[in-house]
Amino acid sequence: MMAIQSHPEAFPVRHHINTKLITETARLVSELGGFRYAPNTPLVGANAFRHESGIHQDGILKNRDLYEFIHPEDVGTNCQLVLGKFSGRHALRYRLNLMGYDDLNAEELGVLFLKFKQLASTKVFIEDEDLVTLMGKVPPSLKGTTLK
């Protein structure tokens, strides 16, 4: 289905399948069938659209088609840029901007990135709470909320 949808020039046929239900359907089949599919299962696995590698994250942020010629929304899921020891500055800045830390200059980002890398060497994934701690202040967008 996704090959037909993603490469119409190679497959001169059409289908009327709602591909946005693929992930939900896979979860339902897994639950009803009493089995789990692997995290690296194409299209529906937890890692199918998860990116931790700095070069992949940078590519996704610049032009997502470089690494996702099938967009996660087309199969009912989303892209995840996971911050960890392999992440780069671009992904860190992106996450900080999403959190409301959008006033960092290059020098401040460089200092923060060193702290981030040090923390990432001891922790598998860096969460928003960790970034708030590294920043030393809660961004305006999160004031009054409770981080999980």
From TrEMBL:
Pfam families tied to this protein: HCS_D2
Alphabetically ordered keywords of this record: Acyltransferase, Transferase
GO biological process assignments: L-leucine biosynthetic process
Molecular function via GO: 2-isopropylmalate synthase activity
Protein's UniProt keywords contain Acyltransferase: yes
Domain 2-isopropylmalate synthase/homocitrate synthase post-catalytic stretches: 43-123
EC number: 2.3.3.13
InterPro entries named in the record: 2-IPM_HCS-like, LeuA/HCS_post-cat
PANTHER family per record: 2-ISOPROPYLMALATE SYNTHASE 1, CHLOROPLASTIC-RELATED, HOMOCITRATE SYNTHASE-RELATED
Protein name: 2-isopropylmalate synthase (Alpha-isopropylmalate synthase) (Alpha-IPM synthetase)
Organism: Dispira parvispora
Lineage of source species: Eukaryota, Fungi, Fungi incertae sedis, Zoopagomycota, Kickxellomycotina
